């Protein structure tokens, strides 16, 4: 979320027609088209963050900026060129970084929270813990994970929370 993404079509010369068909998981469909013989570009139902990378007459690539959760879906480039018709489809999944926080609960135990990540973050502890992380699923596809440190038979008041996510690896020390 928040980054920039470029999707490319097959690299062909003598292109006569390029059409991007975008079917987001939520919301309406969008079409970007370019007809080379008339040097004519059309745009139908596309949000402002979906554009040609540098103009369809120069490059058939599509740019999404900024990438949003609503950007998830299927992106298909259809191209007609002198040597045939070509199609390429992308299935876009958007990663959402969790917001990580550590704190001490009312009993003085270390707690680690990875809020609103997609996919759900994994939480582990150093030293090891017998904790069972709790997950709260949100309607937008994000998940909050909460883990309370449980010392393996010892009363440990200091630990490191290790949060793992495809877009993040983080180690947070906490002393209670």
From TrEMBL:
Any Gene Ontology biological process: regulation of neuroinflammatory response
Coiled-coil segments:
none
- Write out the GO MF terms: signaling receptor activity
Q: Which PROSITE patterns match?
A: IG_LIKE
Chief place of localization? membrane
What is this entry's stated membrane topology?
Single-pass membrane protein
Family annotation (SUPFAM superfamilies): Immunoglobulin (SSF48726)
Task: Print the keywords alphabetically.
Answer: Disulfide bond, Glycoprotein, Membrane, Transmembrane, Transmembrane helix
Where does the record place it?
A: Membrane
Span of domain Ig-like: 1-93
Give a single Pfam family match.
V-set
InterPro entries from the entry? CD200R, Ig-like_dom, Ig-like_dom_sf, Ig-like_fold, Ig_V-set
What do the Gene Ontology cellular component annotations say?
A: external side of plasma membrane
State the family it belongs to.
Belongs to the CD200R family.
Question: What name has this protein been given in UniProt?
Answer: MOR1B protein
Which organism does this sequence originate in?
Nothoprocta ornata
**Protein's gene:** Cd200r1b
